[in-house]
Amino acid sequence: MTSATVSRPDEQELAAAGLGLRVEGPVATLTLDRPEVRNAQTPGMWRMLAAVGASLVADEAVRVVVLRGAGSTFSAGLDRAMLDPAGAGEGVETVDTPFIEAVAAVMGRRMETDDRVVVMGEDVHRLNGGTNGATRGLAARFPDRILGTPISENAFAGLAGGMAVDGRYRPVVEFMYADFMWVAADQLFNQIAKARHMYGGTGAVPLVLRSKVAMGTGYGSQHSMDPAGIFATSPGWRVVAPSTPYDYVGLMNTALRCEDPVVVLEHVDLYTSTGPGPVDDLDYCLPVGRAAVRREGSDVTVLTYLAMTDYVLQAVEEYAAVDAEVIDLRWLDRASIDWETIETSLAKTGQVLIAEQGAVGTSYGGWLADEIHRRFFDLLDAPVRRVTGSEASPSISKVLERAAIAQVAEVVAELDEIARY
Description:
five-stranded mixed sheet; single chain
């Protein structure tokens, strides 16, 4: 396919929508020229962006897209399979599936079809697929590409980063618990996250980090954090948070096609759950930047992710006085979040509640609330509300752990406040 197949909007059309486009060899630079365009308030802006995007996807010479606007620059490798709406998971037959089986199945499928994929981490090669079974059966099928590592996250994260930059492999790193990212902070946030930007977006860093969130399981303070807020405020990382087996397969496939580093968050509560998963299709992709509306409503927009999605849905059913629209974000980083779906919902409801489980200090919702106030101030009838855990980290004591995290009761309490407003 070439650019001749899909017509690209001309300069006049782009200028009318407040956009600028320059294509020089493999690099396309798209500039958001006006503040109202950057705030997603210009009529027709999304239509024009879609048209530009389709033309870039069709142009096989374009490998990198640079977005400029709002005083910042974001570079991304252009992967047609993950940006093209075709094959976006529509029409995939589903069946009730254990979440952990989907995790192992899709990784096995990708290793089967792409011999560049290498998995590394503590115990991934034994214990019947690691501590939770996420790599079950893979060591027997791919003994040379399932690498058990020492307890040294900084060492094997650095190794994976070098392999990704080298370009001959697509490393998948498993951190047994998200808290261990601090051991590898330099490798994750100074090196892997910044490499693409440092080289102007021209070099790929195709690395996937699988990181486990275990709050609510009694594993203690050093094994329970939600790292979404840390990764989302560290430029360079894409952040994926699947809440169903179906989403996990489609989002992991997209992550493994992405040329940026991607952290895939996995909640231990979900490992033991079941939900819709593909019957036999392990190849579909769910596009970057597409959220899922799990429940439609008219009173308040609830933004959530991971295991908190189910807690929110339970709370909404329990507290019927508020008709809440529940959006499962799926993509959490600033570059990938689905602002269009959020805006559409907010135009109906006029209120936003951000619900997450983790401690308030490093919470994800802090930056998101700030950005929503800025982007959608005219649509808000009230300040953004938030549900988070407490100031303390979870501890081994079940009573103290429950006091430190948010679940159904905390969401119900906030819905009650909204009803009183």
